[in-house]
Structures are given as C-alpha cells and as structure tokens.
Write a structure and sequence with these properties.
Layout lengths: L2 H10 L10 E3 L7 E2 L5 E11 L10 H19 L2 E11 L4 H18 L2 E9 L3 E11 L14 E4 L5 H9 L7 H12 L5 H7 L5 E4 L4 H12 L2 E5 L7 H6 L1 H10 L6 E5 L4 H7 L4 E7 L3 E5 L5 E3 L9
Parallel strand pairs: 4-5, 9-12
Antiparallel strand pairs: 1-2, 3-6, 4-6, 7-10, 7-11, 8-10, 9-11, 12-13
Helix pairs in contact: 2-3, 2-6, 4-5
Bound molecules: adenosine-5'-diphosphate (ADP) and magnesium ion.
Adenosine-5'-diphosphate (ADP) binds next to helix 1, strand 4 and strand 5.
Length: about 325
C-alpha cells in the first residue's frame, strides 16, 4: 500500500470520522457534505501549526493532536458556534505510523470532548505542518463578533490566565519547578478547554467576544479597535493562574497580561447580565470596562495608568 494511502486510511477509519448529526457524507469522496439547518450560518476558521514555530520539534504526537484541535475549536467557541466538522491538511516528512496513531488518538480525545467530526483533508510530503479547518453552526445573524462592544459595558475574562506562558518556560527548561505545579501547567498548555458552553450562553446577550490567543492586552486591543471603543483593564482584577504564580510570583502577572495561548474568552457584557453569568460560570472574572476612546488602558490599584501598549506575541 502506498504510504499516503495508509495515512488516509488511518483517518478514514477513525471513530471521530464517522458521519453523524449535520455530517451527511464524510471522508472518501471529492468533498464532504454538511447539512446546515435553515436559520443557521456556517462558522469557518483555519489554523496552521508549524513545527519549530508553534510547537517544538519532537513534540509528542498525542499531545499535539489534542492541542491542535482544541486551539482550532476555540475560535468556534469565540463566535458562539456549535462545532460540527473539521478537515485536516497534513504535511509530513515521512509516514511514521506510530506518530500518526498517537496524533490520531489525540485528535480523537478532543473531537469527542467537543463533539466535532473529521470529514476530510489532504496529505502531502514536506516539513511537519498541521492545518485544521473547523466548521460550526450559529443562529443566523447572532454570531459573537469583536466589533459590538459598547461604552458602559463591563469587560470579562472566562478564567485564569498565564498558565500557558509559564508552561512554555517549563518546556524549554528556562524554569524548573516541583512535579505537581509543572504537571498542572503542562496540562493547561497541552489541553486547553475551548469555552463552547460560555460562547453559546453569550448568544443574544449583546457581548463582543474573542479568544485570548495572543495575550490579554493584545486581544483586548483587537476588541477595542474592531468596536471603535476604549477598553480599560484593572490590573488587580486580572485572574492569574495559581500554578504560574508558584513558578514565579514576579512574572505571573506579566504572563497573564501578555502571554497568550490560554484560550480563555475575553468579552464585553452589560452589567445587568453579570449575576446570571457568575451563576453559570463561576470561574469568570470582571476585569474592567468599556468606554469611549481607543486602545487599551491598564490601571494599577490606585487607578494610575500602568501601560497603554499592546504587548502580545506577534509573528512579524
Ligand atoms: P483528492 O485527490 O480528491 O484531493 P485525496 O486522495 O487527497 O483526494 O483524498 C481522498 C480522500 O481522503 C478525501 O475524501 C480526503 O478528504 C481524504 N483525506 C486525505 N488526506 C486526509 C487527511 N490527512 N485527513 C483526513 N482525510 C484525508
Ligand atoms: Mg487531496
């Protein structure tokens, strides 16, 4: 059997590639076929993960499969969409069956958690590169956008930040820490939880939303720019990962503000929704507010401006 035929077979036979729900036709033909119910829109997002840029060479393929799909599905969560299907564009230096089986098991765990089905892909030879396109449905006209924040709204984040940035220091060996803390940090890095339930809860509540991939300040900056408003963040209200604080009490706050990779949702919401939100999502924290103006303002405990620049990770 041709080695790429073998690869296609591994994915075609996987449990998470079986047609179900909105997936009428899965892997095997020239296209997959999806049913989009009347009154719904299809939300689509693509992510590429390149070895040496987005993950270190030699990364365990099971962890990679899990994280790659979680990161992609997080974009669906940030739109309030319900996942239905994904495709996989895989570039591989060679067909290593053990690597592929591990990667597929990683995809399987996350596909099961997020109820998404693999419906197709493409396989080529080249440097290791993983391209995932995820699709989901959202009630027509109701998707959560970055551009709808209103002065007077509060600013919220769905959970603690900074663990992923701290985990990268453990992974590259620049920080050393006890086993329990390091396990907690690595778990949050390798298995981010797409905030699907929260995204769906926010539908119809007037929220502007995005997921924190570049860092809180940078992503809050995107929300401010797209909405034409100013976002004020009170530093003392930002929830910092307790494991990151154990690793470095001095650095944890800066990881939480600029680290990225945590895949929490940051969103604006009117104050009258706050009680209902906290009841359903106790891990969410109010971190500031939206006002007229532009950009992001970071305030210290005395209400003094700490910094106004976006400081997230940028590729270029
Ligand atoms: P085509 O030449 O029409 O692109 P391929 O031979 O590339 O067809 O693929 C055959 C089938 O296998 C298609 O349904 C495609 O979606 C699927 N496929 C190929 N590679 C992958 C992959 N890495 N993951 C999932 N499905 C794949
Ligand atoms: Mg093809």
């Amino acid at each position: 059997m041709h080695e790429f035929e073998l690869i296609r077979q591994i994915f075609r036979d996987a449990g998470y590639a079986r047609p179900q729900g909105a997936v009428a036709h899965s892997i095997g033909d020239d296209c997959a076929l999806l049913n989009v119910p009347t009154g719904q829109q299809l939300a689509v997002s693509t992510d590429s993960l390149l070895e040496g840029v987005h993950f270190p060479a030699g990364t365990d393929s099971f962890l990679l499969g899990q994280r790659a799909l979680a990161v992609a599905v997080s974009d669906l969560a940030a739109m309030g969409a319900t996942p239905i299907a994904f495709t996989l564009a895989l570039s591989l230096p060679q067909a290593d069956v053990d690597w592929l089986r591990g990667f597929s098991r990683g995809l399987e765990v996350m596909a099961h958690k997020t109820a998404i089905t693999l419906v197709g892909g493409d396989t080529t030879r080249g440097p290791l590169n993983i391209g995932l396109t995820v699709m989901g449905t959202v009630p027509a006209g109701q998707a959560l956008l970055r551009s709808t924040a209103q002065p007077g709204q509060q600013l919220w984040v769905s959970g603690p930040l900074g663990a992923a940035a701290a985990a990268l220091r453990v992974l590259d060996g620049s920080c050393v820490i006890d086993e329990t803390t390091s396990a907690a940090l690595l778990a949050s890095y390798w298995t981010p939880e797409p905030q699907l339930r929260l995204g769906q809860w926010l539908l119809g509540r007037g929220a502007a939303v995005l997921d924190v991939s570049d860092g809180l300040l940078a992503d809050a900056g995107h929300l401010a720019t797209e909405s034409g408003v100013q976002v004020v963040i009170e530093q003392a209200l930002v929830p910092v990962s307790s494991a990151a604080s154990v690793l470095s009490a001095e650095q944890a706050l800066s990881w939480a503000l600029t680290g990225g990779d945590d895949y929490q949702l940051v969103f604006s919401l009117s104050a009258d929704q706050a009680v209902a939100l906290q009841e359903q999502f106790p891990a969410a924290s109010r971190i500031g507010y939206v006002c007229t103006g532009q950009g992001v303002l970071l305030l210290d405990g005395q209400g003094q401006v700490v910094g106004v620049e976006r400081a997230g990770y940028q590729h270029f």
